[in-house]
Amino acid sequence: MTFAFVFPGQGSQSLGMMNAYGDNAVIRQTFAEASDALGRDLWQLVCQGPTEALNQTVNTQPLMLTAGVACYRVWLDMGGPKPALVAGHSLGEYSALVTAGVLNFGDAVPLVELRAKAMQEAVPAGVGAMAAILGLGAAAVTAACAESSQGQVVEAVNFNAPEQIVIAGHAAAVERAAAACKAMGAKRAVMLQVSAPFHCSLMQPAAERLRQRLSSVSFSMPGMPVVNNVDARCLSEPEQIKDALVRQAASPVRWVETMQLLAAKGVSRVYECGPGKVLAGLVKRCSDGLIGGAMADLAGIEAALSVVKP
């Protein structure tokens, strides 16, 4: 049986999220490495908060990277085999690249902190917004954005499922587009509590800062295929992978196509590696041939092991 791992991104964090894995030495060591790389205690933050600090982008992104890598290391420590492919949703792509051996974990933690700062600072607070559109297809959402822009930016940025799409851009334009989607038959249009309009073209200044930083970070050839967000492709050349990460910051997350590619490559089960169960829930909605599972706690890892371990 062929299986893949996917790694969650920003939005899946919660206070005490690592408690579900028990008092695990592998997890504690992974968080210690990340804390050393940043010069601040991520373990205390994830265990004790406060929640406001946990949800600040500059903290959330290093935390979720570390949580995904920690979960993967626990999987290996428990005798789990390597997956056939890996992918990650937005920030989660960095966890995938670490597990594939492309990016050193000690380099990845400060890199995603820089990414978080760059994304946060690309658009002044209150200028941008995001909304989730439920029950409307990609073509209709894209058309609603086009007719609602009125000289501002509003774009479809997360294609999470065939009828679950997130839009982002200038706040007023996002509100106009959300209303237009409702008028076109969307079941719901929900404004999201986010600090910046991620993955839209307003993030281009962040992409350029990321490009500059990546020029000094060492990447290796992947030890297993990694499906990227921006093209829904597997790349092997380090410079191509860096370029995809740069483009990802200001481009849509093509998650439906990512899941369809996994299915096309013979994957039958997709496990979400890290806290949260959002990606596991999206799997079957993106491709009929896939079964999703979550490793959001120790029981989830054990359940996955019982299925895939030879």
Describe the protein's architecture and organization.
With 310 residues, the protein is α/β, with parallel strands linked by helices. The chain has helices at 25-38, 42-48, 51-54, 57-77, 92-99, 105-122, 138-148, 171-183, 204-214, 238-249, 255-264, 278-286, 298-308, and strands at residues 3-7, 85-88, 128-134, 154-161, 164-170, 188-191, 226-227, 269-273, 291-295. The strands form two sheets. A five-stranded parallel sheet has the order 7-2-1-8-9, sandwiched between helices. Helix 12 links the parallel strand 8 and strand 9 (291-295). The protein is globular.
Short description:
The protein has 310 residues and is α/β, with parallel strands linked by helices. The protein has helices spanning 25-38, 42-48, 51-54, 57-77, 92-99, 105-122, 138-148, 171-183, 204-214, 238-249, 255-264, 278-286, 298-308, and strands at 3-7, 85-88, 128-134, 154-161, 164-170, 188-191, 226-227, 269-273, 291-295. A hairpin with a 2-residue loop joins strand 4 (154-161) and strand 5.
Helix content: 40-55%
Mean pLDDT over all positions: 97
Give the structural class.
alpha/beta
**Oligomer class:** single chain
Query: Got a strand count?
Result: 9
